Amino acid sequence: MTDAAPAAAAPSTGEQTGPPTAELTIGRPAHGGHFVARHEGRVVFVRHALPGERVRVRFTDTADDASFWRADVVEVLEGSPHRVDHVWPVADALRAAARGRSAVGGAEFGHIDLAEQRRLKSAVVEEQLSRLGGTDRAVVVEPAPGESEDGLGWRTRAAFAVDAAGRLAMHLHRSHEVLPVQEMPLAVGPVNALRLWTLDLSGMERVDVAVPSGGGEPLVLLVPAPGTTPKRVGTVAASIDGASVGVLDPASGQVQRLKGRTWLQESVLGTDYRVTGAGFWQIHRGAPEALVSAVLDGLVPAPGERVADLYAGAGLFTVPMARAVGPDGAVLSVEGSAGTSRDARRNLHGQGHVSIVQGRVDAVLGRRTDRLDIVLLDPPRAGAGKKVVRQIAAARPRAVGYVSCDPASFARDLGYFRAAGWTLDSLRVFDLYPHTHHLEIFARLLPPAA
Ligand SMILES: C[S@@+](CC[C@H](N)C(=O)[O-])C[C@H]1O[C@@H](n2cnc3c(N)ncnc32)[C@H](O)[C@@H]1O
What we know:
Blueprint: E1 21-25, E2 29-30, E3 34-39, E4 42-47, E5 54-61, E6 68-78, H1 93-98, H2 114-133, E7 141-143, E8 157-162, E9 168-171, E10 178-180, H3 189-193, E11 204-210, E12 219-224, H4 230-239, E13 244-249, E14 254-259, E15 263-268, E16 271-276, H5 287-299, E17 306-310, H6 318-325, E18 330-335, H7 338-347, E19 354-358, H8 361-366, E20 374-377, H9 386-394, E21 399-404, H10 407-419, E22 423-431, E23 440-446
Parallel strand pairs: 4-6, 7-22, 12-13, 17-18, 17-20, 18-19, 20-21
Antiparallel strand pairs: 1-5, 2-3, 3-4, 5-6, 8-9, 8-11, 9-10, 11-12, 13-14, 15-16, 21-23, 22-23
Helix pairs in contact: 2-10
S-adenosylmethionine binds near residues 312 and 335.
């Protein structure tokens, strides 16, 4: 079978040998925001299309030795009833094609009505579960709590590039090229209220903005281009009104304070968390609440239980689980990034039954042989992998909760659990990234009967 989903890959280095354009009929959605079509017997992963459409595409990767090609829609010949005007003009592939360029990334489903976006995400999860996880399951994608009807205004984190003229910009899809941008409709109001596009950002390579999920003063992190003087950085920082500003070293994740704070105060279901500017936090303003509720409802940690929160970030799930198991229980919270682990330490300060460990999950689990009642894992996109799945199974928990932002790595890991006799008990899928192909999964897995 050649139409395996393409990895979220780097641009192909293969020589382009195929035709520049073709007319194609679009088939099913594939993992990664693509739609499957065929051209002269070869699988083509097409972006910005919809199932059933007849489109003209421009090929973007056509190496002779590639098992599939990639293409982007440049003209719709017969459109789907689910096609709508794109929510964000600079991310609109058709508009971009008319100007002879690609669209910026970050809203690749913006041409699809929201209900259909969710049906497509369901289909992708179902297909991955079946193909990689050996499990047939009907999936319904739920909106985030408090989601707006148009699915806009949800991003609390945004990373911008800066163009050669010093303007706020974003990268074109799978490209180093950038395009100036102004309002970003997917972002929460306070990101746009900064009006960063009116500023001269020359000397900066990147500008990251973060806003607390519940609102509050934004934090802007500047990443200066090599050779930029501290004076120039100071001038840019001084031009930013209404935000804390810091300088981010992307290599170390360290943030140097220029004005205001270097961290954000987040609040989820009545609990406050401190998150450093560069530290991980869920992006959708409703995501922390949706996921904490799903985890607690799904795993029901009880007083006295021993739980592990793996890939724990700043402790989003560690804090409520620590409260649920109480001082007679025990919580192991494992996070790899030093800065984020420091946040977790602060967020769980003074809780003697919680052990915050900074390190790789496989290394930390490899040093332990004790039994756990519950294991929660929330790995990055690559998933946990066979070794960690085996280590979790070896701790013989009564339940595993798996939070995942990638249906393919989740389904693969589910396959590893199933091979060890575990079953997928319940599954929830959340649309925490409207107008993109991304989604979030919470699954409860149960061990083989004793
Ligand atoms: C998807 S985030 C989840 C964070 C947290 N559960 C939350 O929702 O806020 C994954 C986290 O795993 C951490 N991480 C990535 N690989 C890791 C590894 N091998 N061992 C431990 N932590 C890792 C990252 O630094 C990141 O904070």
